[in-house]
Amino acid sequence: xxxxxxxxxFSQSSLQDYVDCPRRFQLRYMDQLNWPAVDTEPVVENERxxxxxxxxxRLVQQYLLGxxxxxxxxxxxxxxxxxxxxxxxQEFDNLGKLHPELxxxxxxxNHRLVAKYDLVAVQDNQATIYDWKTYAKRPxxxxxxxxxxxxxxxxxxxxxxxxxxNNNPFEPGQIEMIYWYADFPSEPTRFKYDANQxxxxxxxxxxxxxxxxLTKEFPLTEDEKMCRFCVYRSYCNRGAQAGQxxxxxxxxxxxxxxxxxxxxxxEIEF
Length: 270
Known about the structure:
Elements: E1 9-10, H1 12-20, H2 22-30, E2 40-41, H3 43-64, H4 69-72, H5 79-91, E3 97-108, E4 111-123, E5 126-133, H6 141-146, H7 148-160, E6 175-181, E7 184-192, H8 195-214, E8 243-244, E9 266-267
Parallel strand pairs: 1-4, 2-8, 3-9, 5-6
Antiparallel strand pairs: 3-4, 4-5, 6-7
Helix pairs in contact: 1-2, 1-7, 3-5, 7-8
């Protein structure tokens, strides 16, 4: 088995993978095993929606960087993309100083933590994190609250976002995170932040990072329902049939689809 390199770059996806299934973390991030299996069924529809989701993120990024919407609209050339793009343009305006596709990083123990944000908007000393979701079904707010993305994104903005606020670190109470669902534009999930939540989140992140750093054995999850949406299920003898896409789209999310360049990250130095 490959040892965890030091420093290792942790993300919300790698932390989520470890908590969901330590073996998945080992196979994906330590052994870097590419296993030829599908995440979900039906395969063609799943792949199409993933590609559309990536195109939508790029459309929004270019729009927020100042490309005229009429120049971008021709790229919204499928029913899903056209609907999502129209919903977005009707919903967002005058968000303040915009930082689209922002990547932040901070030391954590002997390692570092990184996150790539769809958008951080700063206005009147308040920072709002926006994350665009193209789920076919709107998830429960309670489920989104428990995701490592929600914990990591808000906590890391406190730790590493001072340069967005005239070199003054944001107080937790100045931060809000909004998940905006392209198919449910009037039903966003909003999570305000506070000092107690930040203390809890950063402590939880440090605890898991330390646990992973000291771990020698990475067992399979005891919750075999997780295996339905994992490419390694056949490798681990946990079944060959993929789960259905509409059951758990969020389980398959990964920053890998959005091309994080770890060498060009705004961060706190070690």
